[in-house]
Structures are given as structure tokens and as C-alpha cells.
Amino acid sequence: MSEAVVAEEYEREPVPKKAQKGWKSFLGMYAGEHAAGTEFVIGPLFLTTGVSAFDLLAGLFVGNLMAVLSWRFLTAEIGVKNRLTLYFQLEKICGKSLVKFYNIANGILFCFLAGSMLTVSATAVGIPFDMDMPKLTDVMPNGITWIIIVVILGAITTIIAAKGYETVSKAANWMSPIIIVGFVAAAIVAMGQLEIHSFSDFWNIWGEGKEPFPGQIKYTFWHVAIWSWFANAAMHVGMSDLSVFRYAKSAKSGWTTAAGMYVGHYIAWIAAALLYAVYLKTPEAINFLANGEAPSVAPGPLAYNAIGAFGVLVVLLAGWTTANPTIYRAGLAFQTLFPKMKSSGATIIAGVIATAAGIFPAFAMQLLDFVAVYGFILAPVGAIIVFDQFFSSKFDVSSNYAEKNKLNLNWAVLLAWALSVCGFYFYAKTNGVFLSFLTLPAWISCGVLFLVFSKIMQKKTS
């Protein structure tokens, strides 16, 4: 990659006016990224939790609305105001040493998420090879064919992501219409196979809900609403998408996330759940349940059984359009660890880690749990940025304190993050509380503690 292209990523400077983009650029990206590979897994996983029809439909509506509002009024506002990546913004507040630790955690978790999407795409590519598909409880790869397919997909995805934001955005715009059409077509075919002729027929698929599958917990309205709000917690309240919205001409571009939430996290999740409902009526699935096992949720075969080869293409592209920007984000995180390294080199490192993770199907098969943990760990760091941006002056706390005082480590940030995450995670585990329920309390706690510790430490310093 040439120096000219690398400079256009603006890793350590505000995005200039000439590089800013209109809302259409974000519409395609969010529609493509969130009507994507995760949807083919998450939709079926909701059925495994025994959720009722009302709890699923109403919970998804409320949770996705809260996610859109978080993007619009927090992430996009700060992104447009400062036009900096998450990582450079954190460096100003936290110091270089602490932000490096965060970037390692952030980058690795992004790689694991991207790896799970390579797993999704691999279930589509493996169909012509009659490959054994991963089961809900699988952790290890089930053969050399699986490994080869994931490695090839990972290499292609990494090459595209390494070309930068412009290429990632264009690719999403090209692919998202195909994916959306595929989800709708699959849902229509699945409804025919399930003999759905009215809304009451559709309602009865979930009805009042059932007992969760082996190894799953029972989901209620609150589980669905809170989980869907914080499914992308790292991106919105966690401020990761500052790296995206720094390119926006206006904070109103934050509304484009609704395309991802309601086409992807609403229609697509329900469409994928319908595909799984069809599969649950097959002798194979019935046999699994009779033996006390959870049937496979491999997206490739589910889509292929509904719409044939087009379904295979849709799953392949869906996994790819999620993995692609996720590897790009991970590359930005790793690039901050080695400022002299080109963005393309850091993205290649991220792609290698994501590919290695994709070989192991556990990340995709346990996606509900992984996404909850992922958001819970990363979201509170976003509170540091939000509280520093909006409340520091009101509490007489110096904003961007590490930059102004040339600190490598801002202890106020480290203590606030560690106490909030560790404290609430320990509470969740010892009391059996659904982890997503504690993401918001941990986020608020981190922001408040940051201001309190900053007030104390800055007063001592002065």
C-alpha cells in the first residue's frame, strides 16, 4: 500500500472536510454489516432459548430502537465533533500505555467476532463438499476440509479489509442488497414450508414459548430487549464506531444505523429463526432433541434448504460483510500498538488472528454468550469518552488529561474500568444474573468512577 493511501486513513489526526462522506455511505455499510452473518446464527439461537412470540417481536423492537438512539446521540455526535478514531481519542484521555492494553483486548475480541463470521461463511462453502457441519456444542474443527475453507475465506477477507475504509464501505454497498433480498426470499419460502397463511399462524410458531434447549437459558422480553440493545454495545455506547462516524458530514448519519437494526437485527433475525423452525421439523432435528441434544444451527444448510444455491451465496456474502469491517476495526486497534506500521500490515495481523479463531466453531455456536461478554468488557470504556466529553467541565475535571499532562497512564481510567467490569462480572456469576442486564450499570459506574477518581487525582496533582 502506498504512503498516500495510508495517509487517507487519518489514524492520528481529525478527518478533513475533503474526506467526509454523506449518509448514503453509512446506510450501505450498516445495512450490509448488520444484515449479515451473525443474523444467520442469532435468529436460530433465539429459538433455542424458548422465547415467546410477544417477547421476541416486542423485545427486538425496543432493544433495536435503544441501539439506534445510542448510535445517533452518543457515537455520531462525538464522532462528528472530534473526528478521531476511538483509539486516538482514548490515548488523549488514558495515556499511551493504558490505551495499548485496551487496544490489545479490543482488537482480539474483534478478531474473535470476525472469526465467528468466517465460520458462518464456511458452512455455506462446505455444502458442495458434503462437509460435516459444526454442532451447537462443538468447540474444535471437525476436519481438514473445514480448516482449508476457513483459511481461504480468511485470506480473501483480510486482503479486502487491508485496502482501507473506502474499499470496505464500497464492498458493503455492493453486497448488502443481495443479502437483504436473500433474507426476505428465505423467510417467504420458510413460511410456505411452515404453512403460514396468516399472522396467527406466524404467531403460533413461538406461541407462549417453550422450554429452552439443553445448555440454554430461558429468554423473556427483558432478555431479548436488553441483549439486542447491547449486542453492539462495543460499537455504540463503547464508542468503537467513532472510527466510522468520524467520516460523517453530519451526526444525523447516525440514523442510518436503523437500516442495520431493523432490516438486519429485526427482519433478518426473524427470517433466520423461521429457517431454523423448518429444520426443527425434520427427522434429523427431532432425533437430536429426543436424545437430549441441541440440533445444529449451521447457516449454510439452513439457507440452502430454503432457496438453494442462492442461499449458499447469501450466507457466504453475509459472513464476509461482517468479517470485513470487523477485521478493519481490529487492524486500527493493532496499528496503534505499532505507530510506524502501515494500516495494511496491522490489518493483516488482525486477519490472521481472525482466521485462526474461525477454525474453531465455538465462537459462532455460542454467539449469544460471546457477544454479551464482548460488549460487557468493552462498553464501559466508551463511558470514559462520553463522561469526559459531556461532564468533565461540570465537575471541574480537565478533559483529555493524559495528553495535556503528558501521562502514559491515567490511573483514574484504569481503576474505573477495572472496578466496574470486575465488580459487576463477579456479581453476575455469583448471583446467576444475565450478564447483559449489567452492561448498562457497569457503563454508568465506569463513567461516574472516572469523574470521581479524576477529581481526586487531579486535585492532588495540582
UniProtKB/TrEMBL annotation:
Task: Give the molecular function GO annotations.
Answer: cytosine transmembrane transporter activity
Keyword annotations from UniProtKB, A to Z: Membrane, Transmembrane, Transmembrane helix
InterPro entries in the record: CodB
Query: Which residue ranges traverse the bilayer?
Result: 101-124, 144-162, 174-194, 219-238, 259-279, 302-323, 344-364, 370-387, 408-427, 433-453
Query: What highest taxon heads this organism's lineage?
Result: Bacteria
GO CC terms on record? plasma membrane
PANTHER family from the UniProt entry = CYTOSINE PERMEASE, CYTOSINE TRANSPORTER CODB
* Protein name stated in the entry: Purine-cytosine permease
Q: Which organism is it from?
A: Arcticibacterium luteifluviistationis
